[in-house]
Amino acid sequence: MTDSVFTKIQKREIPSNIIYEDEMVFAFEDINPVSPVHFLIVPKKQIPTMNDLQEQDKILLGHILLTASKIAKEKGISDDGYRLVINCNKGAGQTVFHIHCHLLGGRTFNWPPG
Is 79 inside any structural domain? Predict the structure, then answer.
């Protein structure tokens, strides 16, 4: 499997504003934000889509969600609310085939999403 753009960001081959990193995930500002707060939380393990997850990845997925909560608190948006989005495949809007979670906040969101 060739490195995704996110793997290249993780390796610092592509510049990005990384705001969080630990042994399992890293998070950085989205280059095309759709809200005042828009970060991506990406596992260091390259998994193309949600359909490619394995049983052993459930700890990783939980860690992504806990990291999102931590970042939301640090950025001061946890009380007002935020949205987490994980797209799966092109029809849902996935453009980089390395799973990632969008953390969106800083504005009011409508339901259902577009």
Answer: yes
Give me the domain span that covers residue 19: 5-105
Prediction pTM value: 0.94
Q: How many CB atoms lie within 10 A of CB 84?
A: 15
Q: Residue 111 falls within a domain, yes or no? A: no
Tokens 């996935």, residue?
94
Give the burial string for 42-56 (b: 16+ CB within 10 Å, else e).
Answer: bbbebbbbeeeeeee
pLDDT tens digits, one per residue of 43-69: 999 999 999 999 999 999 999 999 999
Total domain count for the chain?
Answer: 1
Residues with a catalytic annotation lie at 100
**Strand, coil or helix: what is 65?**
helix
Asked if 101 and 65 touch (Cβ cutoff 8 Å), the reply is: yes
